[in-house]
Amino acid sequence: MTNVTKLNEQWRINDQLYFEPNHHGLIIANINNQHASASIALQGAHLVEWMPTGEKPAIWLSPDATLASGKSIRGGVPVCWPWFGAHSTEADFPAHGFARTVPWQVINSSQQANSNTQITLQLDSANIPSQQWPYPTSAQCQITIGKTLEIALTTFNKGKNEITISEALHTYFAVSDVRNISIYGLDACHYLDKVDSMKTKQQTGNITFSHEVDRLYIDTEATCIIHDPGLARQIHIRKTGSCSTVVWNPWIEKSIQMGDMGRDGYLNMVCVESANAANNLITIPAGGKHQLSVSYHLSKI
Question: Residue 236, SS3?
Fold first, then answer.
């Protein structure tokens, strides 16, 4: 009996949730309900599609993304855990942690009373590389698909000592043209400008794009809105348990160097990431837990 067969026997919900391998053998959870459709790679608990019924896709996935074992996926919602960005001391460790390129296990699925679909995946010690993270820790990612997309990332400290993590839900949003959008909600917030030697700056007004933007906004729990006149919609991003917000678009020069953004892919995406990083690291006491959660929904303009 294959893993896919077992998954479908245990967790399938009629035609609303089922599992199948892609052409690289990566197992994908496919969700279709009356509110939305979505796809989630079990590797990395990585959501790669969310499209509310009657809408264009809200999540951007690069046309050149590789959905294969052990490879990070360009687009969707990568789970950056248990560190964000480069490791603080080990340059050889993977950027943004290992969680996005290792298998997660399905531990629950359900159809909600409002016809939303929920799936919970777990990353346990068996799939955590002990040489990179020698602490008794596990993580769960609960994803709820409906008109609103909800993602909750919970870290459990199972050890006898406190641990410190950084983390992010590195969400890539689909936009009509990044040059014509704006992001509301971070006016007057301070940020570290990665494009300018990590200098601390203060946001003035809404965020717009005419060049590479890579900013880590600190000490903010603010709701953000992506205002997109080209698609006549706004994407609302509400979060809890997150005190950092990262806004990123690589622009043309860096996109060319990256190789998996697709031709002019940067024009149709923007990352607004709910995070805990830099000044906002999370310390979890022995036996404790921490949850970062975020919800996304669309509205017309």
Answer: strand
For residues 140 and 168, what is the distance between their CA atoms, to the nearest angstrom?
14
Q: Give the count of domains, the chain.
A: 1
Catalytic residues: 170, 273
- d(CA 219, CA 222) in angstroms, rounded, equals 9
- Note the pLDDT tens digit of each residue in 34-58: 999 999 999 999 999 999 999 999 9
Q: Note the pLDDT tens digit of each residue in 216-257.
A: 999 999 999 999 999 999 999 999 999 999 999 999 999 999
Residue-number span of the structural domain to which 92 is assigned: 3-300
Query: d(Cα 35, Cα 146) in Å, to the nearest integer?
Result: 5
Angle in degrees, CA 133, 165, 292, rounded to 5 = 125
How crowded is residue 113: how many other Cβ atoms within 10 Å of its Cβ?
A: 6
CA distances to 61, 70, 162, 172, 213 from 250, rounded to whole Å, are 15, 23, 36, 12, 6
Domain of 31: which CATH number?
2.70.98.10
